[in-house]
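Here is the promised in-class demo. Please do not try to memorize the tokens; focus on the logic of going from shape to residues.
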């Protein structure tokens, strides 16, 4: 189910879906113990052009936090 949501969000990168859904799934991965999977998704999110989307901004902060924690 996660991959289906992520695929749909990736298909609509011009909207807020990818940032919002991607950030939520990255946090879910991290909390489930898949820190490397979370970091990979957060890196993908932060490589997107800068935007005012909360998910994009939060992804930057979370990626830095997870990168310094391990």
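The designed amino acids, position by position:
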């Amino acid at each position: 189910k996660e991959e289906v949501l992520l695929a749909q969000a990736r298909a609509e990168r011009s909207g807020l879906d990818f940032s919002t859904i991607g950030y939520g799934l990255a946090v879910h991965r991290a909390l489930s113990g898949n820190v490397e999977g979370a970091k990979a998704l957060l890196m993908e999110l932060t490589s997107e052009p800068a935007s005012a989307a909360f998910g994009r901004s939060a992804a930057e902060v979370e990626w830095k936090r997870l990168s310094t924690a391990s």
